[in-house]
Each structure stands twice: as structure tokens, then as C-alpha cells.
Amino acid sequence: MIDRRNLLAGAGTIMALAVVPLPGRATPADAAAAIREMFGDRPFSDGPVTIEAPPLAETGNSVPITVRVERPMDAPDRILRMGLFSENNPRPHLFAASFGPAAAEAAIATNIRLNGTQQIICVAEAADGTLIRAVHEIRVVVSACTTLEAQF
Amino acid sequence: MFNTRIRVPESAAAGEAVEIRAMIMHPMDNGFTYSTQGTLIPVNIITDFTCRYLGEVVVQVRLEPGISANPIFTFSLRASESGPVEFEWIDQNGDVTTASAELAVT
After folding, report:
1. A23-151: which CATH topology?
2. Nearest to B66 among A93, A103, A104 (CB)
3. ipTM value for the complex
């Protein structure tokens, strides 16, 4: 006998099967591995690196983010390169930037995609080999990866 | 190849930090989204961006699928003498898009 409850349960099962599998997500361990791969297994020291981003993003498709190191570019420990990493995206890498002698400061702003609420890690490498790090948590309401899959 | 929009001030004082903006119109398909027909859209991204001033690198960025569509970068360079500010984007197929502007230093 088909009653309303069984019908709804059956429909739910069919819909669950029809959902496209989610892309794999990176974990904090994957992000740490990506940082080790790019910068080597070195300790972090304190430094003036900041991540400016909204604490809450309504959509993960485009989150404005500014990464800045408050350190003069003619100092012996000037910043040569930096990497931005995600703990929850399918790929932990977001971007890697290197700064040349013509740069006025080690700062760059762009828009990134985020797959849900997570921590963003910025690691910057100075010319003397030291690494500095900043962590910023962003709450994301709608993920960049799942919006389209939920529609189709 | 792709449309670009760059913003470089026309003039600057020597030693001044000048804010530069560079954007390229590109979908940056990340390989995780589906078309309206339900087929997976393959990865199609810009992989490298370089800005040079007087032939010297200002900033060089390695892009990943985690960068939003129409990637824009805002950064600053130290003005020293009049000369070109050149931008170069390379996509995953190796196609190069360039743009440039003149910066007059007084």
C-alpha cells in the first residue's frame, strides 16, 4: 500500500541518489602538507603579516581578500614570496605571489573562492629565510563549489 | 586574447607608492561545476600573472582554481622614473595576454 509517508521517503531516497557527488575537500592536514611542499619543513616566527577579509561572506564565489606584510621592501628581511592556503577547498592552494624589487610593499589584494566556513592561512617567506604566518577565519553562507551542483 | 582592464595613474612623484589594478575577463572554470546540460565543465584557468615596471618584476602570481572569475589584483609599486608598466597573463594552454601603460614620474 502506498501512503503519503512511504511515497515521501521513496522520493527522498531517489533525490539523494541523484545528487552529484561532492568534490573532495582538503583538510587542515592537506593545507599543512601544501605549506610544507612550498616552503619546506621550517618553524614559523612572529611577524607583521595580516589578512584583511570580511568575517562573513554571503557567497563563497568571490570573497575580497588583502594580504599584507608591514615591513619595508628595502630591509634585509624583506618579503620575497607568500602563499595563501585554504583548509576546506577541494585544492588547498589559493595563490602564490612573489614580489620583485619594484614593489612598494609586500601586499596584494584579490578575490578568492571558498568552499564553506574555514580558516585561511597566509605564509610569507622573508629574504633571510624566516617564515611568518597569519590565520583568518571566514564564515561562508553559500559555498562556491556546491551552488551549481544543487541546481542541476 | 582576453579583454583586460588596468589602472595605472598617469603621473606620480619619484619615490611614491603607486596603486596598480589589473583585471582580466576570464571565467576561471575550476573543474567542479556543471553546465546546464549536466556535463562537467573542464578546468580552464589563467595560471600566471606578471607585472613589470621598467623591465623589473613588481609582482608575479601563480593562480589556482581557487581564484574567482575575472581575476583582479591590486598591489603597489615604487615609482622611480618614467617608463612602461607591463602586464602579462598566461593561461593553461600557454596563450599570452598582455597590456601596458605609461607611468610619468615627475
Report:
1. Immunoglobulin-like (2.60.40)
2. A93
3. 0.88
